[in-house]
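re the bet — no i am not wrong, look at it urself. input seq straight from the record:
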Amino acid sequence: MDVLEQITNLARGVCATHGLDLVDAELFRAGRRRVVRVYVGKAGGVSVDDCAKVSREVSAVLDAENWLGEDNYVMEVSSPGLDRPFKTLPDWLRNLGRDVRVTTREKINNKIQHQGKLLAASEAEVTLETPAGAVNIPMSLVAMAKIEIKLS
């Protein structure tokens, strides 16, 4: 198991103990130090306290286990932001009832772009309520999906 997989598994466990979902984890070099970046989410939004808890606990294990060797590192924990693409089923489930934009790999109802309220999501498919009615989109055909941000 490589270091990123170890960090991802660690962060997933820490998130679970605090009622958070691990959205993504990254490990990369920035000059002479490494950056460990963890994105967390939860229904209702992520607080600064949530991020601080995850940061402290993941850093403590990284330091104790010496997974990064002698490399200096920076630990960053944050919410992934509103405009990032959905990557996991929990991303979809957190956004039930919200307006989303889904791009498909193949046409469904003669369209590649679908916008509407997210009604349901499972490993197999998502359902949107669109102006033309409900549309079921197989997960295997989803190329990208994001929250539809509307500025008033």
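see?? The mean pLDDT is 92. told u. also The chain is about 25% helix and 40% strand. so pay up
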